[in-house]
Amino acid sequence: MRKLTYFIACSIDGFIGDPKGDASSMFGFLDEEFLGYLTSTYPETIAAQGRGPLGVEGAENKHFDTVIQGRGSYRLALDIGVTSPYGHLREYVASRSLGTSPDPAVTLIDGDLVAAVRELKAEAGDLGIWLCGGSQLAGALLDEIDELVIKTYPQVYGSGMPMFGSGFAVTDFALESVRTFGNGVLVRTYSRKR
């Protein structure tokens, strides 16, 4: 069974973006040390437009071979003219409103999201599935998430888009590791307690 990992950036107070989903204030923390970690440890999470400049264009995927994102997250790429932001992965976008995929490399999930994710998890393979965002998608898939990798930036938003856009549900995870960086960023990894 392959793992579904919610690999996400958030503020200290647990928001992945402002009320409209903008998280560009976190980009200021992408310094040499932190980018070095991301490009060496999670190169597959670097989007197409950043892979060349960051020297990971041909990098081997280390954790994931599939990415799932919501329409809002995907819209960020579409708004800058990128229809396949993670072409080095199998790309899925959960959306009932897009209608048709703007790119043959991107598969839309417009039906039963949980069933689709369970099918992907049941596939054979050593690499997992990256849940890229957003909030509503993570909330809908909370029961399917096996691992959290949370990049916590030293900012407080006060309000905005929460990590999980769902109703109240206590779900336990076990802390596996914490990595700290000189810029104040923490990367915490949790595994699902089942």
Chart the SSEs and their pairings.
Elements: E1 4-11, E2 15-17, H1 32-41, H2 48-51, E3 64-70, H3 71-78, E4 90-94, E5 106-109, H4 113-122, E6 128-133, H5 135-140, E7 147-153, E8 161-162, E9 173-180, E10 186-192
Parallel strand pairs: 1-6, 1-7, 3-4, 3-6, 4-5
Antiparallel strand pairs: 2-8, 7-10, 9-10
Task: Tell me what the structure shows.
There is one protein chain. With 194 residues, the chain is of the alpha/beta class. 20% of the residues lie in helices and 29% in strands. It has helices spanning 32-41, 48-51, 71-78, 113-122, 135-140; strands at residues 4-11, 15-17, 64-70, 90-94, 106-109, 128-133, 147-153, 161-162, 173-180, 186-192. The chain is globular, with a radius of gyration of 16 Å.
Keywords:
194 residues, alpha/beta, eight-stranded mixed sheet, two-stranded antiparallel ribbon, 5 helices, globular
Distance between the termini: 14 Å
Please state how the strands of the largest beta sheet are arranged side by side: 5-4-3-6-1-7-10-9
* Main structural class: alpha/beta
The helix content is: 10-25%
Overall mean pLDDT stands at 95
Total number of strands: 10
Tally of alpha and pi helices: 5
Uncertain runs: none
Order of helices and strands: EEHHEHEEHEHEEEE
Largest sheet: 8 strands, mixed
- Estimate the strand proportion: 25-35%
Radius of gyration: 16 Å
**Spatial shape:** globular
